[in-house]
Every structure is written in C-alpha cells, then in structure tokens.
C-alpha cells in the first residue's frame, strides 16, 4: 500500500526538510565554517575548479539557496536542479575516481543528494509547500510534479554541471617522470 492524503504530504515535507536543510547547512559551512570561504577557495583551486574563490562562492550559494528552496517546497524542480548540478560537479572533480562507497571517499552520498530531490520534485512538494500555495490550480501547476518536474530537475541540473565543468574545471595535469 502507498500512503495518501495528509500522511503523504507530511512524509514529503519531512523529506524536503531533511534534504533541504542538510544541503543548506553544507552551503553555510562553506561560507562560515573553519577557515571560511577563503579556505574553501583554496581547496576548489586544488581540485581544478578555477578561479577557486568564484567557484567556492557559487557552490556555497547554490547549496544554500537550493537547500532552503527545497525545504520550503519553493520552485522544487529548480531546487532539485541545483542539487544535481553541485553534486555532479562534486562527483566529477572529487569522489567519482574513488569508486561508489563513501567509506573510500566514493560518490554514494553525492548520488543520493543528487537523485532524491529530483524524485521528490517528481512526486511534488505536497500541500505544505510554497509551490502548492502559489501554483495549485493554475495552468502551470503541471510543471511542479510528474515528468515535467523530473525533466526540469534532472535536465537543468545536468546542463548546469556540464556548463560549470566546461567553463571552470582545469585540473593540473599529472607530472611526467623525468627520464634519466
């Protein structure tokens, strides 16, 4: 059986709060955690995301904004796209080469943070959301759940990640050994 009615709306609300506030905290920590944004900028430079300060600010801003938007259920497919974009960049630049499991610094956590908001967008933000308040009963309500929400969240997120990588990912090539 699948829950319906108020139970489903409460479950979706709790999932949005958990994921959204987790991502927002991640962005907040980039700005204000130990070493602040300057420390994150140096790290971004070290992984090939140049210029580091711009990319650290962009990542922190997207994480904070997308996280809060998802928690509120505001423009949920766009919030999901933000999650997808930052997590795909993280997979490409950091965790992807380490395999799947997080215990080996793999991409399993990034994958969950990328996919789950898109699936939530597909379900819809529920009755207890800004989306419901603004768009229920309007001609564009169909963009906020179902296949359209999936396409917006996944598609824009993938395009955002590809764009950021194309514009800013400049890893340092490995040094060739000197023949003696």
From TrEMBL:
It holds the Pfam family DoxX. The lineage of its organism: Bacteria, Bacillati, Actinomycetota, Actinomycetes, Micrococcales. The chain crosses the membrane at residues 64-91, 111-128, 148-169. It is a multi-pass membrane protein. InterPro entries: DoxX, DoxX-like_oxidoreductase. Belongs to the DoxX family. It comes from the Bacteria. It is found in: Cell membrane. This is DoxX family protein. Its main location: membrane. Keywords: Cell membrane, Membrane, Transmembrane, Transmembrane helix. It comes from Microbacterium istanbulense.
